[in-house]
Design a protein that fits this description.
Elements lengths: L17 H4 L11 E5 L13 H5 L4 E8 L4 H16 L5 E3 L3 H10 L2 E8 L10 H7 L2 E5 L21 H13 L2 E3 L5 H10 L4 E2 L6 H4 L7 H9 L4 E3 L3 H4 L7 H15 L4 E3 L19 H4 L21 H10 L4 H19 L1
């Protein structure tokens, strides 16, 4: 999640136009994986917002269920509500609990859904909390949301190393069947995490800083360190981080994918769109939050910081075909669209 206030959240995607509904596909990837997406963190949210991902022929999406500024009580309500609403629609969705569930959902034509946590404050300084959240469907976690905490540094704060507690929580994540993520994390802490982890590490939704320019983007050293763990960088479709004049489109995504492939190879590139649909009346922060602290204006946020549109997930088939048109082999397109993240899940879950 990236927006600074509820009023600045990206609006729901417009109804599919004829360009999308009549699109003729050239290549159908073996599996399509969106490594990070957001629904409003409110139990009132209709789960059919996930139909946007089904319309993009996405097979698995990992959705945020809480950030550092959300209380444990709030996060538990969100998890309970989302799980219940997914269970009510077994004809459309499947809660992913194990690695084998990915194939089961795909075979049944269902959208597989996992959860992620953006931060570690909800762990309450207890590595023992990691397996508890894992049992509730949390498949992925990073340790700091933009700002420093007792576990790790955030990308919009003083650059600090991973703490001693952070090293213990890395071990807990590796042991509990979660994917270790470094999105939103400070540079030094991310490098420390990648050295400490015994499993692949990902940036579920982050773009190369040389192209995106924003402080939330990652530099070449971080990208290479991620690849050295056998991890994956998920190209983020958020406008400010992809650095597009208008709403991000296929060529913008391809530009970032190309850079990463040239730098670290096709085995370490994926997709993590960071979509943020809004729902009238939903409240992500019932306990109150200082928006200016987590999304500081001087770090490129707020209404004067440029657009906040996100790549439309319904265009994922067009992205796959664009990569074919750019000369990528079908097997390599399959890796980028999902197989690379499947490899990480196989090793982590």
């Amino acid at each position: 999640m990236t927006a600074t206030t509820t009023s600045q959240f990206a609006t729901p995607f417009a109804p599919a136009d004829s360009t999308l509904s009549n699109y003729k596909r050239k290549h159908i990837p073996s599996f399509t994986w969106d490594a990070h997406a957001c629904l409003p963190l409110d139990p009132i949210v209709p789960i059919d917002l996930l139909d946007t991902y089904r319309a993009g022929n996405i097979d698995y999406v990992c959705i945020n269920v809480g950030m550092d500024m959300n209380s444990v009580a709030h996060i538990m309500r969100v998890i309970a509500a989302f799980r219940a609403k997914i269970a009510v629609h077994p004809d459309k969705y499947m809660q992913i609990e194990t690695f084998d569930d990915l194939a089961k959902a795909k075979k049944a034509g269902l959208l597989g859904v996992g959860f992620d946590l953006e931060g570690s404050v909800m762990l309450q300084d207890m590595p023992e909390m990691v397996p508890v959240f894992a049992k509730l469907g949390v498949k992925q976690i990073h340790f700091a949301y933009n700002r420093n905490n007792s576990v790790a540094g955030g990308c919009h704060d003083t650059d600090i190393p991973l703490t001693a507690l952070g090293h213990e929580i890395v071990k807990a994540v590796n042991a509990s069947g979660m994917i270790m993520d470094c999105s939103h994390t400070g540079r030094q802490s991310s490098l420390d995490i990648m050295r400490a982890s015994s499993k692949p590490v990902v940036f579920s939704h982050a773009n190369p800083k040389v192209l995106g320019g924003h402080e939330r983007c990652i530099d070449d050293e971080q990208i290479k360190a991620c690849a050295e763990t056998n991890g994956v960088i998920g190209v983020c479709g958020f406008q400010r981080f992809i650095k597009s004049a208008n709403a991000p489109d296929v060529p913008d995504m391809v530009r970032h994918i190309d850079y990463l492939v040239k730098l670290v190879g096709v085995n370490h590139v994926g997709i993590g769109l960071d979509t943020m649909p809004s729902v009238k009346g939903a409240n992500d922060f019932p306990d109150g939050v200082d928006n200016g602290y987590y999304w500081p204006k001087d770090r490129g946020y707020g209404p004067d910081a440029g657009g906040a549109a996100v790549f439309d997930p319904r265009k994922m088939p067009m992205l796959a075909d664009a990569l074919i048109n750019e000369g990528y082999l079908p097997d390599d397109v399959d890796k980028i669209m999902g197989e690379n993240f499947i490899r990480v899940a196989r090793e982590s879950w």
